[in-house]
Amino acid sequence: MRIIMAIFILGLIGCGEDGANNTCAAGGPRHGYLAGPFGTDVGAVIENLALVAADGSLFALERIHHDGNNRLLLIMTAAGWCGACIEEQPTLQGLYEMYGANGLAVLVALFEDDQFNPADAALAAAWTQQYHVTFPVLADPHFVFDAYYDSTLTPMQMFVDVCSMEILKIGTGSDASAIEAIIEARL
Amino acid sequence: MIHCPGLPNWGPVGQGVLDAACEWEFGMRKCPWLSLWLWLWLLGTLAAGMLVACDVGDGDPQPGDAANGGDTDDGGGDALNGCAARPESCGVDDHWSTRVTGTVVDEVGSGIDSARLTLCLNGDVCLPSISEADGSFAITVPERNACFQTADMHARLPNSHRTATYCRMDLEGGACPLFAARPFVLFPTTPATTLPPLGNADAVRTVVFADGLEIDLVPSGIYPSGRYEDLAVAKIATDAAGLCFLEGAPVVLALYGFSPEGDVKDTNFPVRIPNGAGLDADTEVDLWVLGALNCTVAGTSVGEGVWMNFATAAVDASGTLIEAEIPCLSWFGYSLR
């Protein structure tokens, strides 16, 4: 029975990684957003989450989806108290500059400031300026990404296929080489 | 003697186990396979549990026992003080710990409640925690992150007039739980004696602190913003306890810590440091700064907890001041060059 269960679990893991092999050719704008059901795990379609942009407006994931040039979305959660997140910003900017033309979209979702207060638009604006990044930095004051990973660990990286809005991979930590390898494989 | 079709010959001992298993089957003299394997599984589980208990019960007190507190928030690892067994995949040069404990105290050694801790492992993943009323804290590290080579701790009390501190944890000979032998000390800071009203946040103004330390700063040049009106500083005796970041560094003659901590954007802030050490005029000194969450020198981030020599300066001709520039509002000091 255990062997059968192990095979079943391995099969599930395998499905989670391989079942999302869905790339998106560059093209014109897309409209609307994917219909549910939505989920929080690898293989599920991510909900059209709306976060707060640096100018105070709402920024929903559909904005990334609608841009036909985007093929792969890298979402990174971050907090002002997280040194690893701060150290990662130049790397993210470098990846964005290197692969943006090939369809990589990058988005940083800040959930707390360095005093552990919920993030706001002002923090997103200051973060953008302080770390000289050109991709969207958004505030996630209600920490909606908490549902997607073990949030005792920060930062999180999530890869999403922009065409299907399917979650391809969720990880924690900031292993730049691993992140780049995934981007290389997907674009 | 029990006979079960298809069962291999296990010899006298195996037959004894089989007999016992079948005897315990409510006295029924039969060998239902499911029940037999159920008993074997239970026996195996019990044996494994006894091995785990023996491993812990060696009688040696574990450092950090007070901080461990016997809580069970890690989902059942309490029998090992929250520690999971080290996997073979963890390299011999790596440290293995699924639990990190320590205490946060004030300048007289009293525990600080609700201090915030951030543990960053290998510089690429961080785990937050909060201290208890007695200052103790315990951080549970998921097993997939528990094999590491560096562990850096950042302790602070948000929205307070206390310095933050950064310490790289000593992993030499460490075990699980990894215990910070020396408490993290958060020193009290004193608000500026002269703090001009915010007014135009882009305008330069001179802020003066209790011992005569002066900074010419621009409020809008501080990151994160909104820190100007809370600025406070502590002048700490350089032999005070808890200054882990000074270990191995040249002896500093004066040491200041700011609260709240922050970076100086784009340019440095001119500072005039009283020559409290009584150095002769024109004596050259090395200037040091502590890398913090937000501290950049010449556009490059200074690593958290790194005590960095970032410039040199000299005592002025009158012998009263050392004029310099500071790159961030964390800790800074000077030593003889």
Can you lay out the helices and strands and say which pair or pack?
The complex is a heterodimer of chains A (187) and B (337).
Chain A: H1 2-18, E1 50-52, E2 58-60, H2 62-66, E3 72-79, H3 83-99, E4 104-112, H4 121-130, E5 137-139, E6 156-161, E7 166-172, H5 176-186
Parallel strand pairs in A: 3-4, 4-5
Antiparallel strand pairs in A: 1-2, 3-6, 6-7
Chain B: H1 11-23, H2 33-56, H3 65-68, E1 95-96, E2 99-105, E3 116-121, E4 125-130, E5 136-140, E6 147-148, E7 151-156, E8 165-168, E9 178-179, E10 184-185, E11 190-191, E12 205-208, E13 214-217, E14 222-223, E15 232-235, E16 252-264, E17 269-274, E18 284-290, E19 296-297, E20 300-301, E21 307-314, E22 321-326, E23 328-336
Parallel strand pairs in B: 2-9, 2-10
Antiparallel strand pairs in B: 1-6, 2-5, 3-4, 3-7, 7-8, 11-15, 12-13, 13-17, 14-16, 15-16, 16-23, 17-22, 18-21, 18-23, 19-20
Structure characteristics:
heterodimer, A: 187 residues, alpha/beta, five-stranded mixed β-sheet, two-stranded antiparallel ribbon, 5 helices, 21% strand, globular, B: 337 residues, mainly beta, seven-stranded antiparallel β-sheet, four-stranded mixed β-sheet, 3 helices, 12% helix, 33% strand, disordered N terminus
